[in-house]
Structure formats: C-alpha cells, structure tokens
Amino acid sequence: MKPTQTNQKATSPAVILQTEARGKTLTRKMIYMLIGAFAFVLVVSAVILAVYFGMQMTKDNFKEYTATFSGDDGTSTKEKVIVTDTEEIFETAVATGISDFSMGLVTYKFQKTGIALDVNVCYVTNLNTSDFQTPEEFIETHTSDQITFARNNQVLRKYEVTDIWLNNKALGPKSKELCKGKPVFFLREITETRTREKRAKWKVTINLGIVKVEISWGKERKEK
Predict the structure, then answer these.
(1) Torsions phi, psi of 90, nearest 5?
(2) pTM to 2 decimal places
(3) 160 and 76 part of one domain
(4) Angle at the Cα of 85 from the Cα atoms of 177 and 183, rounded to 5 degrees
(5) 51 and 139 co-located in one domain
(6) What is the Cα 93 distance to its own chain's centre?
(7) pLDDT of 59-107, one tens digit each?
(8) Could you give the residue ranges of the DSSP H alpha helices within 61-163?
(9) Dihedral of the alpha carbons of 181, 185, 186, 191, in degrees to the nearest 10
(10) CA distances from 60 to 12, 63, 92 (A)
(11) How far is CA 65 from the centre of its chain?
(12) DSSP states of 47-74 as a string?
C-alpha cells in the first residue's frame, strides 16, 4: 500500500504581495470610514450646539426693569418692564401691554376680573411710535434696572372697541404667546376731530409705561 501524499502548492511572491496590498487597502478604507464618521459626528454636534446656543441667546436676549410711577399726590405704583430686540412689555396687576415695533402694533390683555373688559380677550391697535422709545433707545437710556417716571409726563390715548377681529398670526411672538387661544379685537383711536353723540356704556383707564390708555365700549356711537 502506497503512502498518501499531500499536494501543497507553493504560494508565489506575487500572490503574497497582492494579498498584502488588499489588506493594506482594506485597512486604509476602514480608517477613512472611521475618520469620515468621526467628522460627521463632529459636524452634527456643532450644528446642534449652534442651534441650542442660538435659541438660548434669542430666549435670553432681553432686559428686565422695575418701573416706579409717581403721581403729584405722592402716590406711586410699580410695574415690570421687559425689553427685547423688537418689543417692550409692560406688566401691571391690571393688564399687560406689548409694544411690538416689528409689527407696528400694541397688544393689551387684562388680568383683573373686577372690570367689565373680558380677561379672555386681547385688544390690538396701531403703534404710535412717538409714544415710545425704540427698544434700542430704551436700553441705552435706562442703564439701571430701576426706573422712575412721573405720571404727569404720560401721553393719553383714547380708544373704542370695534367688532373687527384680527387673526392671531398677525401678531408678533410675545403677543401671540399672550393671546394664544383668545379672540383678538381691534381698538380704534378716538381723535379730537371725531365727536360722539352718545357716551360709552363702559370705560376703563390703565397706565402702561408712559402711556395712559382709556378704552371705551358699550353703546353704539354715531360719528359726525
């Protein structure tokens, strides 16, 4: 019986070189893929961080004041004033007023239920830019977070409630937030050139910032 012989083929140097080359190429591809994946993660992380900090800067980009308004009779009242890039927000125990310079509107919402105006309704009128400093001017003028104003320097604005309804989308960011889920009605300014034959059934006066606002509503009024 003949012994079994195992046939072994010698691997040529060329084949060995090709195998080594393939191994090196595969290793390089894996390294490139890892580098690419790492770079992708870095880019995505940088974008996420930029968005986050951008939102934080937008969110935190405001200045808050405590305003004291003194009257001739020695009385004084306080209100909170918040100034953003485009808005000035005045908050009292009675109402909140937002002067939005980007939209050219002023929004009012009442907090107190002791007055006849519905607390679940917002009222909007055109912004009189002469009544307010711009947000930039306000911040430059008032370097301290404590402000004092005299009531006798206030501007009086008179309005009447109309049945004109506004879409919430027409409001600025803070006004949208304030009036979310609430109807919004337009206030028409009452000027000296207009007279009313009938007096309003209800009237309310509020002080917001340097503006004294008088809002009337109720009976139908004829104009002439």
Answers:
(1) -115, 120
(2) 0.66
(3) yes
(4) 25
(5) no
(6) 22
(7) 447 899 998 887 777 778 888 999 999 999 999 888 899 999 999 999 9
(8) 135-141
(9) -130
(10) 72, 9, 22
(11) 17
(12) HHHHHHHHHHHHHH--EEEEEEEE-TTS
User: Residue 72 has which token pair?
Assistant: 């001739």
Q: Which of 15-19, 116-120, 154-158 has the lowest mean pLDDT?
A: 15-19
Strand partners, 159: 189, 215
Q: Check whether 150 has a pLDDT greater than 60.
A: yes
The domain of 50 spans 12-61
pLDDT, tens only, 111-145: 875 666 778 899 999 999 888 889 999 999 999 99
Tell me, yes or no, whether 223 lies in a domain. Answer: no
Helices (H), 61-182: 135-141, 173-178
**What is the structure's pLDDT at 59?**
46
* Torsion angle (degrees, nearest 10) of CA 6, 12, 13, 19: -80
Q: Are 80 and 64 in contact (CB under 8 A)?
A: yes
